[in-house]
Amino acid sequence: MEQKEFIRRIIENRNGKLSQEDYRVLEAWKAKSDDNRAFVKSIERTLDLTADYGNDLEFDSSKAFSKFTQTINNTAEVIPLKKSVSKRRFLKIAASVAILLAVISTIWVNQGNATSEIATLYSEKGESITLIDQSKVVLNQKSHLEHFTSMPSNSRNVKLNGEAFFDVYKISDKPFLINTNSIQIEVLGTSFNVRDLDSEEESLVFVKTGKVKISSISNPRKKIILTPGEQVIFNKKTGNF
Predict the structure, then answer these.
(1) Prediction pTM value
(2) CB of 184 closer than 8 Å to CB of 222
């Protein structure tokens, strides 16, 4: 699911329709590894190749997805077209590219259908909620929380705008990720308080139990680990903890 989501972001970024926050997430993801950057480059090359042709070719979506997945796993390269390519070779490449475009389009549609798995909660006066993974969240007044309503296959991602206390249920193979406009917090199982308001110049995290890793959205290499009883303040203007 995560790979499909980044394909959607890559497409929207190429079309100039990516939101500022999604752009930061994409850039942060690219910065994590050479494999991620190679994956983005591969999709971008595919989009370049499919700019002017191949849209009318028929395809088998199930076979296309299988081939696309295998291609991504085996290599991050897409063969570029050259002026000297023969007609037969050109049609073979065009057909392969059309399959990739069809898969990307299918993934995009599936991503749209998956939005029903995400719910947004706005708390006017403060509210408590237990997520499907048994994690508990206490929202402060005038705070927003976007959260999953079915168990994710990989990481458990939520988005917070405002202030909330989290008591995260530990699932070792599914890290819990909290994204605000300025920081990302990664935990397995712990309890802590997060405050990040658009009207304030600083974000604050206080850890009650367990351990959390916090990184800057704009510069993922800037990170810090907190243990029980510790608090960190992130300055949004300077980008420093």
Answers:
(1) 0.52
(2) no
